[in-house]
Amino acid sequence: MLAVKQAMDAQRVISESIQHYDTMRAHSFKYRRHNVVSARIRLGYRPASSMILAGLGLATVGFGARFVIRTIPALGKKMADTVYNAPKLDSKMFASSKYYKGGFEPKMTKREAALILNVSPNANQQKVRAAYKRMMLTNHPDRGGSPFISSKLSEAKDVLDKSETAASCTR
Question: Is the Cα torsion angle 164, 98, 107, 139 positive or negative in sign?
Answer without folding.
Answer: positive
